[in-house]
Amino acid sequence: MRGAAVLLSVLLVATTCHSAFSFVEGKLQSSKTLAYVFMIKFSQEVEFVHHNAGLVENGNFELSPKQSDMKGTEMIGRYALPKWEISGFVEYIKAGQKQGDMLLVVPEGAYAVRLGNEASIKQRLNLTKGMYYSITFSAARTCAQEETLNISVSPEWGVLPMQTMYSSNGWDSYAWAFKALISPVEFVIHNPGVEEDPACGPLIDSVAITYLYPPRPTNKNILKNGGFEEGPYVFPNTTWGVLIPPNIEDKHSPLPGWMVESLKAVKYIDVEHFSVPQGRRAVELVAGKESAIAQVARTVIGKTYTLSFAVGDASNSCEGSMVVEAFAGKDTLKVPYESKGKGGFKRAVLKFVAGSTRTRIMFYSTFYTMRSDDFSSLCGPVIDDIKLLSLRGT
């Protein structure tokens, strides 16, 4: 329904303002014809929207450079990598290739790229001006040094820290969101690092993009996107979810409606690979009190509200005693959950009286937890189905 609602507004704009979307072509002879064409095109575009997410061109780097554009593993020439423009020392890495004693693993397909010092890859994207988008990509460190990646879509940019790795195989998927202020745009992944060994640069694979539809409060939930159904693209063939980096501003969050107010990321998980309490998506709080999400809701001073939510585990061998702390302004609730690491959840409710016209809703995990199957992957409790409602008669 969210896709249909958005498309209705987009279609009306498109037919009157000649936007980048071209749904109806030619002249319409009558209102019946208009309605008929509208229904046909509308149904076609609903199908389009639900599938208009995935890899950018050669986003998995399986289209290889020519041998004449290679010098060992280094790609030579700005356009050596098909569909991309490269700058600096960029390597084309094959799965199973060795770096010293370390075997380089590629999460999807057979190839990835490695960015050396001050190296970058760039692609031009044709987008819809004014729409929100989220980029998802997978990355891995190849050395122990602290690393960051600069992500930019002209004229916006962000810095994603890679100091903490959350999965045991060394690869994590990251999300970054932006608003398309112009089109086309230049999308760049840049390694700002200055290492003595250029082979210490990060590996990049599987670059994808999706629309983000700004959610709105409803009469059934004052919070926006309380079920986390709107969010970044999740790669169907990976099993580690997508990290939402810290310090993301609300209007450009890959998790629309929510802010990551912490030092560490939160993890966006899907029902295909994890246990999810409600719907198809949820959030895993993977770094204790350093992994928090928040949203500011409009409230009426003196009115009573209920904040309800689900707490569980992702069925990813995250075992032990967990506690989720929920905050609504100055009120708080600690929800204990005993996880066996095999899925499941419980529900909780925080009742409070609003003391302000804007109430901050926040969640974090009290403890740090490691997966019991590898003892190296950070994990934590799952939260989902968050609802904020006012009590009548208060």
TrEMBL record:
It is found in: Secreted, Cell wall. The keyword Signal applies. Pfam families: DUF642. The keyword Metal-binding does not apply. Keywords: Cell wall, Glycoprotein, Secreted, Signal. Residues 54-209, 222-387 form the DUF642 domain. Residues 1-19 form the signal peptide. GO terms for cellular component: plant-type cell wall. Coiled coil: none annotated. InterPro entries: DGR2-like_dom, Pectin_Meth_Modulator. This is DUF642 domain-containing protein.
